[in-house]
Amino acid sequence: FTDQVTVTNNVITTGDWTPPVSQIAALSPYKTNSVFNVDYTTSDSVSQVKSVELYYKFGVGGSWTSFTVDSFTPVQTRSSSFIFDSPAGDGEYFFYTVATDTYNNVEEIPVSADTSTIVDTVKPITTLNVSSPKYTNAGNTYVNNSTTFSLIATDATSGVDYSTYQIDDSGPIGTYSVPFNLTGEGTHKIYYRSYDKAGNVEDSHDQTFILDISAPSSEIDQAGLTGYKNAASFNIPTSQTDTLSGVAKLHLYFRKDGVGSFTEYLSGFTVGNVNFTGTGDGEYEFYTRAEDNV
Question: What are 45-69's pLDDT values in tens digits?
């Protein structure tokens, strides 16, 4: 059919068999609020548009569902908005509209959606992973300069865009790409956060670490070993110090009669005195080596 005007007995009758048209304006790729406007325009070249119905589907494989109908005083052209509230939660939504005119001509359903957007209202989550060596005691975490720090970020909907980190208040803010280390012995604070592709920004996190790069010290009390021993077993008095992470263990080495290399006698002890049993009469030399907790 075509739209036409018929004159019968001086009575003018008009006909309209052409449906109206409507179109949703392009939405931004992402929405960080679950409630947002869906703008549309509609028109009818012959009669007037009386309503526009908004349809949506959630996800590529979703089913098309009517959201609401905007009914209004008939007009030939109209620009307005629907307030959409993301009934399925975060995810991707697709949209189209169907207009109806005063002759009840209904716009054909489009082949594809007019527009789409991804609703993402949740901030990303970042975890700071700390490699060995590390040691925690009394609420303090000690590391050394070979300890690596890495950021693991996740975002369920739009995906992580990038992560940033900062070492200490005076340090520059950098974009994270590869694991990093601390430098400069002492206390350091690491700040970190992530940004998703929708524009959500994670709240900043921080963790404090103590960098220990100084070796511990240990010694044998020479006064306790002077002179001669008339028994095969005797005590060797030792001491050790470490100002940061603390001494984890000591190693005792000995050599008899100056022959050959030193041999480890005991490993992993932390007590002050070590009971030593010799392999026979002779002159014994000793030294200790300490390891701290990192």
Answer: 999 999 999 999 999 999 999 999 9
